[in-house]
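S1.2 Input.
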Amino acid sequence: MQGKWINRLLLMPATAWFLVMLVLPLVVVAIFSFGERGAAGGYVPAFTLDQYLNLPARFTAFKNTLLLAPAGTLAALLIAYPLAYFLAVRASPKWKTILLVMVIVPFWTSILIRTYAWIFILGGRGIPTLLEFIGIEGVRLINTPFAVLVGIVYGYLPLMVFPIYVSLEKLDKRLLEASADLGSPPLRTFRQVTLPLSIPGIATGCMLVFILLMGEFLIPALLGGGKVFFIGNALVDLFLQSRNWAYGSAVAATLVIIMLVTVTLYMKLVARVGEQREDVSIL
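S1.3 Output.
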């Protein structure tokens, strides 16, 4: 009994922080979502489903988010995995630390400055000018979904690299040697040994990037130029510009529900894949 009370006391600060900083705001948002907009904006207590019935008015923001967030996560994974594999398996100890620092360096600069740099690179004086120089004219990159996709992959790539790197760094190199000694070609060794053992890192990296992209605001606002809206941009408009707190809360609550369902299904899929891999390894 004494041990249980000690555990409860140790958990109380984290529990209080969790309740105040996460649960309470979600409860407030849920309550506001059933209210109405006041005459001068804000929130008026009520109980109506009108805000949820009006969600199709923000269909474009939901569509862009639900398309570009998974696409950005997948693109980041395809770029990050070879880099993490090289750092963990192929790079020499002499260069590994230097390369890891180079991956971290972008985080030393504000995301705002880095995004403005991409505005210049993708703008009229950047890549389109180079393409015109070699005879390809009429290419527009800025203020397009492609520009937003490039920005989110660049911004969140390190968050995908490091979880995968940690999983591959723990990989027992003797397994690779044993697979090669048994006559397995490199591609088969990667598919049957390296990739399954790196699934926890892939799952963690994808979850980190996807959850953050679902609430992204800055990159679509700058690289999308007001033409590629995410749900985060819609929430800023509803809460700060339109002052429609009830409708904004309904949009936010819907976003939270979508994320909870998506993450739950994703974790079940990852767990099932892990169980299948264990069954195959046992056989």
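S1.4 Remarks. The domain at 57-282 is CATH 1.10.3720.10 (MetI-like fold).
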